[in-house]
Amino acid sequence: MTRQLSRRRLLAWLGLAASVPVLSACDRLGRSSVFRSFLASGEWLSYRVHRLIGASAMATEYPESQLSPVFRTNGNTRPASREYLRHASEGFAGWRLAIDGLVDVPQSLSLAALRRMPSRTQITRHDCVEGWSAIGQWTGVPLGALLERAQLRPEARFIVFHCADDFGGTPYYESIDLVDAFHPQTILAYAMNGKDLPIGHGAPLRLRVERQLGYKHAKFVMRVEAVRSFAAIGRGRGGYWEDQGDYDWYAGI
Amino acid sequence: MEPVDRPICARGYSLPLALVLAGELSGRYHMHTSVDEAIVHRHRLSTRVWHWLNALILLVMLMSGLMILNAHPRLYWGEAGASRDPAWFEIGDEGVRGFLRIGDITIETTGFLGVWRDADGQTQWEAFPGWATIPSQYSLALSRRWHLTFAWLFAASTALFVAWSVVNGHLRRDLLPRAEELRGRHLWRDIKRHAKLDFPKGAAARSYNTLQKLSYVVVLLVLLPLMILTGMTMSPAIDASWGWLPELFGGRQSARSIHFIVAMALVIFVVVHLAMVTLSGPINEIRSMITGRYRLPGEKTR
Question: What ipTM did this prediction achieve?
Answer without folding.
Answer: 0.89
